[in-house]
Design brief:
InterPro entries: AAA+_ATPase (IPR003593), DNA_repair_RadA (IPR004504), P-loop_NTPase (IPR027417), RecA_ATP-bd (IPR020588), Ribosomal_Su5_D2-typ_SF (IPR020568), Ribsml_uS5_D2-typ_fold_subgr (IPR014721), Rubredoxin_2 (IPR041166)
Pfam families: AAA_25, ChlI, Zn_ribbon_LapB
Strand content: 25-35%
Number of helices: 10
Number of strands: 23
GO molecular function, one term: ATP-dependent DNA damage sensor activity
Structural class: alpha/beta
Radius of gyration: 27 Å
Helix content: 25-40%
CATH superfamily of the largest domain: P-loop containing nucleotide triphosphate hydrolases
Family: Belongs to the RecA family. RadA subfamily.
Organism: Mycolicibacterium agri (Mycobacterium agri)
Length: 457
């Protein structure tokens, strides 16, 4: 006799229990344990059951590639991250902190979409239609082909889609949508999963492109179940500091293009603006070189960005202080220790202050050499010329190591007018107009710093 068994599995950690529990005993998450179907067994062997397919399998070469064609949104930086635009029938999840500008960006996308002769529907569960209209007038995004609906019920929202028949739907936000066909509170794990599944099925069956706005937790992760990111086709993170107007859209997952692109924007009172060349935002423009500064080229995804590191050395007043902004504090302490041990600079007892320009965050190890040269320049009071960039990773032995994407970094430096680059050895391709000076270790880089500064003077 075949025996049917029941199992309960956690959607977060996939832990299996014999009975239903409200909280997963393995990961401790509430409301993630659901009943799963288990094949019947005969004498301990799973019974084999086949179902006739409704559509036959076809050769891969016979599938028309135009079915995944990108349609530009009209917002160039967003199209860059999406791989050229939005694919019909795709589901995109845009997550970000409150107040970072998600609604402003998507209202701009809906307006540009409508300007190209296509219809867009904006579903808001957080704001009223009057509030959205006020923002549209302030940002210049009012268009007759942009339809608004303040709705938080899923079934009613699907009715709006059937009635308006748009080609683009913006749902702001998925955590505010609820359905009567699932248990749990609005914004809970069960509700978010059910709403996303229904919207994804609608997108796949009708060919409507859907953009979902997602909330984030205090740790920066997307709120809701982890399966939410698996259900959608594209996952984007909208990042920005409230003290700065710079905003970045970072691709995390993209089934239709590269997943490591970055788009840059400037958020203003009258809307959001694309920044095609953001390198100038991270440089401190000054007529003459100043000691304690060094310029580097970092890679954010595939995009090279110019960044400036500033260092200040103060006389010791007791316990040495290390204050950093935009740079990893542990790497800054490590570089200071390498300078003292390998380059014999007595920076250990001194107070060291490090900062970047324009609110930029340098997490790439390629900025190690620029941090080291900025500290050394401040210590010996010898400025680097403004036409010099430093690229390289510093090891604990004082050696300089090559980093990935060196060709793109040097090409970006040459494009912006830099004429000299201090790099680790082994660089093969150097753009025309840029001179690369190789340094084996931090001591050799210090000699290059002295020679370049003296020659420029």
């Amino acid at each position: 006799m075949a025996k049917a068994r029941s199992q309960y599995r956690c959607s977060e950690c996939h832990h299996v229990t014999a009975k239903w529990v409200g909280r997963c005993p393995d990961c401790g998450t509430w409301g993630t344990v659901d009943e799963v179907a288990v094949l019947a067994t005969v004498n301990g062997v799973a019974a084999r059951r086949t179902v006739a397919p409704t559509t036959p399998a076809v050769p891969l070469s016979s599938i028309d590639p135009s079915t995944t064609k990108h349609f530009p949104t009209g917002v160039s930086e967003l199209d860059r991250v999406l791989g050229g635009g939005i694919v019909p029938g795709s589901v995109t999840l845009l997550a970000g902190d409150p107040g970072v500008g998600k609604s402003t960006l998507l209202l701009e996308v809906a307006s540009r979409w409508a300007e190209s002769g296509r219809r867009a529907l904006y579903l808001s569960g957080e704001e009223s239609a009057g509030q959205i209209r006020m923002r549209a007038e302030r940002t210049g995004c009012a268009h007759d082909d942009v339809f608004l609906a303040a709705e938080s019920d899923l079934q009613t929202a699907l009715g709006h889609i059937d009635e308006v028949r748009p080609t683009l739907v913006v749902v702001d936000s998925v955590q505010t949508m609820s359905t009567t066909e699932a248990d749990g509170v609005t914004g809970g794990v069960t509700q978010v999963r059910a709403v996303t599944t229904a919207l994804t099925m609608t997108a796949k069956t009708t060919g409507v492109a859907i953009i979902l706005v997602g909330h984030v937790t205090k740790d920066g992760a997307i709120a809701g179940p982890r399966s939410l990111e698996h259900l959608v086709d594209v996952v984007l993170h909208f990042e920005g500091d409230k003290t700065s107007s710079l905003r970045m859209v970072r691709g995390v997952k993209n089934r239709f293009g590269a997943a490591d692109e970055v788009g840059c924007f400037m958020l203003h009172d009258n809307g959001i603006e694309c920044v095609a060349d953001p390198s100038g935002l991270f440089l401190d423009q000054r007529p003459a070189p100043v000691s304690g500064t060094a310029v580097t080229v970092t890679l954010d995804g595939k995009r090279p960005l110019i960044g400036e590191v500033q260092a200040l050395i103060a006389a010791p007043t007791g316990t040495p202080r290390r204050a950093v902004s935009g740079i990893d504090s542990s790497r800054a302490a490590m570089i200071a220790a390498v300078l003292e041990k390998r380059a014999h600079l007595r920076v250990g007892p001194c107070d060291i202050y490090l900062s970047t320009v324009g609110g930029m965050r340098l997490t790439d190890p390629s900025s190690d050499l620029a941090v080291a040269l900025a500290i050394a320049s401040a210590y010996v009071d010898l400025p680097l010329p403004t036409t010099v960039v430093a690229i390289g990773e510093v090891g604990l032995a004082g050696d300089l190591r090559r980093v990935s994407g060196m060709e793109r970094r040097l090409a970006e430096a040459a494009r912006l007018g830099f004429t000299c680059a201090i790099v680790p050895p082994g660089v093969q391709t150097v753009p025309i107009g840029l001179r690369a000076i190789a340094a084996d270790n931090i001591t050799a880089a210090m000699r290059v710093l002295r020679d370049v500064s003296n020659n420029s003077g």
